[in-house]
Amino acid sequence: MACVGGFGLVRQFPCAAAKELVFGIFKSSLRRCSSKAALSRPTTIPAERFQDCHDRVTRDIQRLHGSIRREISSSLPNLSEISQYYFDGTGKLMRPMIVFLMARACNQHSMNRHCLLEHQYTVGLVSEMIHTASLVHDDVIDNADCRRGKEAINRKWGEKMTILAGDYILARCTLALSRTRHPEVVELLSRIIEDLVHGEFMQLGNREENTDRFAHYLEKSFRKTASLLAHCCQAVALLSTHSAEIQQAAYSFGRHSGLAFQIIDDVLDFISTTDTLGKPAANDLRQGLATAPVLFAAEEFPELDELIMRRFSLAGDVERAQDIIAMSSGIERSRQLAQQHCDLALSALRCLDESDERHVLQHVTEEILHRAK
After folding, report:
1. DSSP per-residue letters across 88-114
2. Torsion of CA 174, 180, 182, 185, to 10 degrees
3. Residue 224 has what DSSP assignment?
4. Which of 38, 112, 115, 205 has its CA 20 to 30 A from that of 56?
5. How many helices (H) and strands (E) does the chain have?
């Protein structure tokens, strides 16, 4: 299968902000990689090679928004405008960045080439489309006011058009995937959409038994967040190698790094500001959700149980919960849980041969714990 990097098979669509959008995590990783402490590690690559890898992924990302906007263009101007609203270059692009890095790492392992295959590029493109479609639908479900620092899509165009736009993005994902003519890849990425629906239904309900809550939370977090990374990483590995061990390692990496990302996201909901997050802080509590910091705090302060069961619906519940969590070790224990999943993700990477992309994935995984938004 042909590569897309540098061979002109996929036209480049420059994005003015692309270098800034190849994820703050990536750039922070470069700074960490260049530090004296990082350079003392035996697994650290020279900063110059790290930068070269950064530039390769930047080129991958530069094509992304233009490709997506072409993919979801429509003869109906309103549909195009609404569907493209969140594809404005302000997203973190973490998912396709990790997918592209995993693809290149797998290709280096199996073919001794760190190029990106055309269908692997499609998987990365679809990962961002599915993620954004889920945000579109989430904004309707959550009656959101803002997203990524601007007016939420449902506020701008109303619920009916927003839902249809999200459906349209998912439909275009299906068409893009069908062009790979790879049934196993189509099946893997179809599971992501199934998991998103299951996860959303799980989020609508509470577990009455305390012993079930954490398992329920982790399962919901996997389905709503980590499934996408897990199945996309597995898909690009499948396109690279027939090795079941490597495919499983890629899946495990995506699963655990995705869970770590979500747990830290839940921590940031308590400790970051609205301006930093680009969406309301303490939003999870206001939506009635009990995330890791709440569940850990409830083990120390059982009075939280009643608030959890009524989904923080009474006046003063949100503020009381925030005060309790601040007094508890819930934030610290949540960070420790995220660290455990990062460690499992790093362990999965060891199945791959050493490469620049594998090292960058290691740094990106470590940086998940330090992100601010």
Report:
1. SS-S--HHHHHHHHHHHHHHHHHHS--
2. -60
3. I
4. 38
5. 20, 2
Rounded to whole angstroms, the Cα distance separating 323 from 300 reads 13
Mean pLDDT over the full length of the chain: 87
Nearest partner of 57 among 349, 312, 361, 372, judged by Cα? 361
pLDDT digits (tens, 9 = 90+) for 166-195: 999 999 999 999 999 999 999 999 999 999
The candidate with the shortest Cα–Cα distance to 138, out of 147, 127, 126, is 147
Distance from chain centroid for Cα 285: 21
186: Cα separation from own chain's centroid:
19
pLDDT in tens, 84-123: 999 988 788 899 999 999 999 999 999 988 789 999 999 9
Alpha helices (H) in 142-280, listed in sequence order: 153-157, 159-178, 183-203, 210-221, 227-240, 244-271, 274-277
| pLDDT (tens digit per residue) in 288-297 | 999 999 999 9
Residue 3 bridge partners (DSSP): 117
CB 32: neighbour CB atoms within 10 A?
17
For residues 62-86, average pLDDT: 93
pTM (two decimals) = 0.88
Give 151's DSSP letter.
E
Q: Could you give the dihedral angle defined by the CA atoms of residues 13, 136, 120 and 71, in that order, rounded to the nearest 10 degrees? A: -50
